[in-house]
């Protein structure tokens, strides 16, 4: 059953209108509910500052008017909401009078306190960059036109403006010449057909003047046609720079914007689809602009001219018929195109699906091979291709219908006008030249009209693409530098870190930290250990402000990291992540990436410290060795050493090593541990490791368990308490080592 929620008060952020999400309604108590997402992006489901209705489809039986005043203390829950059944939304809203009348768990047909529901407003997304999410309110047409104009009419670029003006001038000239063509033809025909006294001309006795005059007119006809085409092409050439310039500018801006968005945003999006959004959106601007300025407006302009000429020259019925024909033609075209759009959407979707599948499958080449799943992958790919094939067939068939209908309308109107003209010619009120002119004018009008369907469809698509892209531009990063934040420099001397009563979760209902507190003194080497999934890497993400705690504070140098600019904070921390992903470039580029303005000597020094330099020298191309996509041509250990080298090159007062040596053999690991000891001298360093042997010499070891700091101390202190988690971990490790060595 579909329900309407009206959020009354903003809880977390802005609500996304027209979205499609899946989640489950958690019932905490008789009047306390919250939405538990089951897809990652649904995490972003929030209420609006505005009242925004949203349809929910609940799987299971639900009474008509179900919940009133949904509330919960949980930060991700709806603080206050009213739920109505959809049957009532258009006419009257029927909230329950009393929240005590809430449907109980049985009525909600829920299991273990959960009701599964599917929410959606029926918005068709033909682009799997996904529906708008957190903070993404769809931009409206006005905002879009404004944004579009800012690129084609840039305030600070007179050259572009000049080009736009010139292009419009060329357009008017081209249309004026175009309309003059049938006139010149008419006069040429009349000159050759009718003598100055109004009788049929006998060409055998006609004077040379008649011939010269008609030749001049026909020459003019040719020049006008060529001129119209020439101006048209010139206009395209002049406008090309405007279009390309705006595409480049907007693509750059969107790209930069994407880099400013939160990690959580990127984790919930498909990267391929995002790049498509930029690509399609920026091209969409060009297309929509060109189509509107050089197609739709010119058609209207030409129709106006033709109708006026026909009205004055041949009579109002001609004007009415031609306008009527164009009106019917347009209505038919738009109607059928609208109907056909869904096939196009299906095609796009299937194409994206097939593309995503192909990429995913090829990226996982090795996994596919390890499990002999080539056939399975091919079948899955073929399923998407089949969908594409079906949709593509429907697109072609419906196009045939569109073309036929357009031709039928146009030919019918043309014949009627010709018959009317023939009557007038026989009555002597029109000449044969007039008939030729009417025919020419209508035919000329038919040429751009023939493109109307595809232009309309493409413009609609372009507008959707632009909307997706501009909507993306409206997404505000949740994590950003506060305005007027004063510069703050973390130095090795003040790089002490404190987590103060930090609570955090990625997904509501699954807390990662609860009241986590610890301090890391400046210049000390601290290790964080704990079971897999205990939240060790999450500590790093919180410190780096990739995510924000739901409660508590994180301080560096005695200052809350929220009060430090992201730039200052992130400059102070160098991270060697758990999965080191490299750029598809050379080793040198990848190490240099740690600090692009440092000289090559420093790059080599960092590589030496990371025990990488010797390996690099054994490769034929040395530092110019290509590492392959995501560094796939390097071994796990080599990748880790590149990541360590670039972190060393960054030269930050805080160095974080997240399982930085997990892929190394014992000798290399020992070399690196020694090197890191030197590199971390005088810096604050945090080492996350499963292999406790690598953290034995740390000044403090923090043991995380159950979202809290369970233990802390030096290795010896922790091992001496045989009941400690650390001691148990240590003895397990020792046991494993003795099995290995026996
Ligand atoms: N973006 C995310 N969205 C939802 N859950 C997440 C996300 N990132 C991590 N988690 C979950 O948070 C928990 C802690 O993850 P984290 O990576 O911090 O653990 P860890 O202690 O570093 O684990 P390991 O030792 O296995 O690397 C895990 O259960 C993980 O599944």
TrEMBL record:
Cite the GO molecular-function annotations of the record.
Answer: ABC-type transporter activity; ATP binding; ATP hydrolysis activity
Report the Gene3D superfamilies cross-referenced here. Answer: ABC transporter type 1, transmembrane domain, P-loop containing nucleotide triphosphate hydrolases
One Gene Ontology term, aspect cellular component: mitochondrial inner membrane
Location (main, coarse): mitochondrion
- Which topology term describes how it sits in the membrane? Multi-pass membrane protein
Which ranges carry the ABC transporter domain? Answer: 497-731
Location of the protein in the cell: Mitochondrion inner membrane
Give TM regions: 285-312, 318-339, 401-423, 435-456
What PROSITE patterns does this protein map onto? ABC_TM1F, ABC_TRANSPORTER_1, ABC_TRANSPORTER_2
What residue stretches are annotated with the ABC transmembrane type-1 domain?
166-461
The reaction(s) annotated as catalysed by this protein in its Swiss-Prot or TrEMBL entry are: (glutathione)4[2Fe(III)-2S] cluster(in) + ATP + H2O = (glutathione)4[2Fe(III)-2S] cluster(out) + ADP + phosphate + H(+)
- Provide the GO biological process annotations: intracellular iron ion homeostasis
Keyword tags: ATP-binding, Membrane, Mitochondrion, Mitochondrion inner membrane, Nucleotide-binding, Transit peptide, Transmembrane, Transmembrane helix, Transport
- What biological function has been recorded for the protein in this entry? Performs an essential function in the generation of cytoplasmic iron-sulfur proteins by mediating the ATP-dependent export of Fe/S cluster precursors synthesized by NFS1 and other mitochondrial proteins. Hydrolyzes ATP. Binds glutathione and may function by transporting a glutathione-conjugated iron-sulfur compound.
Q: Which family does it belong to?
A: Belongs to the ABC transporter superfamily. ABCB family. Heavy Metal importer (TC 3.A.1.210) subfamily.
The protein here is known as Iron-sulfur clusters transporter ABCB7, mitochondrial
**Which organism's genome codes for this protein?**
Frankliniella fusca
């Amino acid at each position: 059953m579909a329900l309407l929620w009206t959020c009354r008060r903003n809880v977390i952020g802005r609500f996304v209108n027209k979205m499609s999400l899946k989640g489950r309604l958690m019932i905490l108590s008789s009047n306390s509910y919250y939405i538990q997402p089951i897809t990652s992006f649904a995490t972003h489901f929030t209420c609006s500052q505005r009242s925004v209705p949203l349809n929910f489809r609940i799987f299971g039986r639900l009474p008509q008017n179900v919940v009133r005043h949904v509330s919960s203390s949980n930060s991700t829950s709806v603080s206050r909401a009213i739920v109505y059944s959809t049957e009532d939304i258009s006419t009257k809203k029927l909230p329950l009078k009393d929240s005590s009348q809430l449907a109980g768990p049985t009525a909600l047909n829920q299991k273990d306190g959960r009701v599964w529901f599917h929410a959606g407003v029926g918005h068709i997304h033909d682009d799997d960059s996904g529906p708008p999410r957190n903070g993404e309110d769809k931009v409206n047409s006005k905002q879009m036109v404004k944004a579009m104009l800012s690129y084609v009419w840039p305030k600070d670029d007179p050259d572009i403006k000049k080009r736009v003006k010139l292009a419009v001038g060329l357009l008017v000239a081209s249309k004026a010449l175009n309309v003059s063509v049938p006139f010149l033809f008419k006069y040429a025909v009349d000159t050759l057909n009718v003598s100055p006294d109004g009788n049929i001309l006998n060409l055998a006795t006609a004077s040379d003047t008649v011939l010269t005059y008609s030749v001049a007119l026909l020459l003019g006809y040719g020049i006008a046609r060529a001129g119209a085409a020439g101006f048209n092409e010139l206009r395209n050439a002049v406008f090309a720079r405007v279009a390309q310039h705006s595409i480049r500018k907007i693509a750059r801006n969107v790209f930069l914007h994407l880099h400013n968005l939160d990690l959580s945003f990127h984790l919930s999006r498909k990267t391929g689809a995002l790049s498509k959004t930029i690509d399609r959106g920026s091209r969409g601007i060009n297309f929509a602009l060109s189509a509107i300025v050089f197609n739709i407006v010119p058609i209207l302009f030409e129709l106006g001219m033709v109708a006026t000429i026909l009205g004055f020259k041949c009579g109002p019925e001609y004007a009415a018929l031609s306008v009527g024909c164009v009106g019917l033609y347009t209505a038919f075209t738009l109607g059928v195109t609208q109907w056909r759009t869904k096939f196009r959407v299906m095609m796009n979707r299937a194409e994206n699906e097939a593309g995503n599948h192909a990429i995913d499958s090829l990226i996982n080449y090795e996994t596919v091979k390890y499990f002999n799943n080539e056939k399975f992958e091919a079948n899955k790919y073929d399923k998407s291709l089949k969908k594409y094939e079906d949709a593509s067939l429907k697109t072609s068939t419906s196009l045939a219908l569109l073309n036929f209908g357009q031709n039928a309308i146009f030919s019918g109107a043309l014949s009627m006008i010709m018959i009317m003209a023939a009557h007038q010619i026989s009555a002597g009120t029109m000449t044969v030249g007039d008939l030729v002119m009417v025919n020419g004018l209508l035919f000329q009008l038919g040429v751009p009209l023939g493109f109307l369907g595809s232009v309309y469809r493409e413009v609609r698509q372009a507008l959707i693409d632009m909307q997706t892209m501009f909507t993306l531009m409206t997404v505000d990063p949740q994590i950003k530098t506060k305005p007027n934040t004063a510069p703050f420099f973390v130095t090795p001397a003040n790089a002490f870190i404190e987590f103060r009563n930090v609570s955090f979760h990625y997904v509501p209902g699954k807390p990662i930290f609860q009241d986590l507190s610890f301090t890391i003194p400046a210049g000390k080497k601290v290790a964080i250990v704990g079971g897999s999934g205990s939240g060790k890497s999450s500590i790093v993400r919180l410190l780096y402000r990739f995510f924000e705690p739901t409660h508590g504070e994180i301080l560096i140098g005695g200052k809350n990291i929220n009060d430090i600019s992201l730039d200052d904070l992130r400059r102070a921390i160098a991270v060697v992540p758990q999965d080191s992903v490299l750029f598809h470039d050379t080793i040198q580029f990848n190490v240099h990436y740690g600090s692009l303005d440092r000289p090559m000597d420093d790059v080599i020094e960092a590589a030496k410290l990371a025990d990488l330099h010797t390996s690099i020298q054994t490769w034929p191309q040395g530092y110019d060795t290509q590492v392959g996509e995501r560094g796939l041509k390097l071994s796990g250990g080599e990748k880790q050493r590149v990541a360590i080298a670039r972190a060393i090159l960054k030269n930050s007062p805080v160095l974080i090593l997240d399982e930085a040596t997990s892929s190394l053999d014992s000798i290399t690991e020992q070399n690196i541990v020694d090197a890191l000891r030197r590199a971390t001298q005088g810096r604050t360093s945090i080492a996350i490791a499963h292999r406790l042997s690598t953290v034995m010499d740390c000044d403090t070891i923090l043991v995380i368990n159950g979202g809290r700091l369970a233990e802390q101390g030096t290795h010896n202190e922790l091992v001496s308490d045989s009941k400690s988690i650390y001691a148990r971990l240590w003895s397990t490790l020792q046991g494993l080592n003795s099995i290995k060595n026996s």
